[in-house]
Amino acid sequence: MVDKDLLQNLAAMSELEKLNQDMKLPNEIMTPEETLQLPIETKLDIKNLTKWPDEVVLHDNNLKLFYVVHCVVSDDDSNIMEEYDVTLDSIKEFDEWGWKKIIEDDKLLKTMKLINIVIKIKR
């Protein structure tokens, strides 16, 4: 069973971490021209992104936007147990800084951070 105080402390640390972030995810959308100039299959670093690609324009051109997320799984003592990157087709539940924290079925905390986007041809 996960310790309630531990989870509250982790949540408080997460909020402090967000306050120390100097960059939120962009909220502007690129023009169709800007969007279509983006290289396909190249990972674009979120730190360098000032506007989101226009997903409607991508869709109309048989392209799709994917999100590369870095995941860290901690053990009961908050030590890093596992780290890996995964590509997702949606980031709806991430916050405005690109973070998501969830408790897995195994009761371990997983922290996810959006790090890159990739444009691919829809299959």
How would you describe this protein?
With 123 residues, this protein is α+β, with helices and mostly antiparallel strands. 23% of the residues lie in helices and 33% in strands. The chain is built from 3 helices and 5 strands; from the N terminus they run H-H-E-H-E-E-E-E. Strands 1, 2, 3, 4 and 5 form a 5-stranded antiparallel sheet that branches. The longest helix is centred in the N-terminal third of the chain and has 17 residues, at 4-20.
Q: Main attributes?
A:
123 residues, alpha+beta, five-stranded antiparallel beta sheet, 5 strands, 23% helix
Layout of secondary structure:
Layout: H1 4-20, H2 32-36, E1 44-45, H3 55-60, E2 63-74, E3 80-88, E4 99-103, E5 109-121
Antiparallel strand pairs: 1-5, 2-3, 2-5, 4-5
Short summary:
This protein is α+β, with helices and mostly antiparallel strands and 123 residues long. The protein has helices at residues 4-20, 32-36, 55-60, and strands at residues 44-45, 63-74, 80-88, 99-103, 109-121.
Q: SSE string, helix = H, strand = E?
A: HHEHEEEE
Poorly predicted regions? none
The dominant shape is: elongated
Radius of gyration: 17 Å
How big a fraction of the residues is strand?
Answer: 25-35%
- How many strand units? 5
Helical residues, percent: 10-25%
Number of helices, where a helix is a run of at least 4 consecutive DSSP H or I residues: 3
Q: Give average pLDDT, whole number.
A: 86
Distance between the termini: 42 Å
**Biggest pleated-sheet summary:** 5 strands, antiparallel
- Helix-and-strand structural type: alpha+beta
